[in-house]
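PROTEIN DESIGN WORKSHEET
SECTION A - STRUCTURE
LENGTH: 124
TOKENS:
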């Protein structure tokens, strides 16, 4: 009688071990099978927006923005001055048409802290 209980215990432990090892494989296979029936991908937007390059020399900032795309991009230069008493500046927004390049410039009284350009793409 004792050998039957032992054999049953070993078979039970072996079946639990096999089930524990097989479960991740089964889940992975089921996930791959269901992947083909997923919803279609969202459409990718057309490329748009000007590419801008900024440079800082002393207290002066210059940005050149070139728009190679068919939509118009409105760009604006933002300059943050390092000194607390030096006034930060936001340049006037400028429209960059298709195939055009614009020059934006600004300055601080002393050192420049940071510079960035914001974009707003407009449909034509």
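SECTION B - SEQUENCE
RESIDUE ASSIGNMENT:
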């Amino acid at each position: 009688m004792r050998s039957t209980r032992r054999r049953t215990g070993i078979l039970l432990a072996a079946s639990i071990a096999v089930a524990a090892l097989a479960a991740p494989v089964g889940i992975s296979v089921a996930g791959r099978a269901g992947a083909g029936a997923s919803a279609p991908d969202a459409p990718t937007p057309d490329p748009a927006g000007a590419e801008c390059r900024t440079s800082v020399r002393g207290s002066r900032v210059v940005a050149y923005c070139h728009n190679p795309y068919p939509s118009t991009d409105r760009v604006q230069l933002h300059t943050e001055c390092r000194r607390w008493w030096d006034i930060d500046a936001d340049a006037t927004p400028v429209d960059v048409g298709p195939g055009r390049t614009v020059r934006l410039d600004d300055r601080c009284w002393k050192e420049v802290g940071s510079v960035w350009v914001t974009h707003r793409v407009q449909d034509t």
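SECTION C - NOTES
The two ends are 88 Å apart (CA to CA).
The mean pLDDT is 82.
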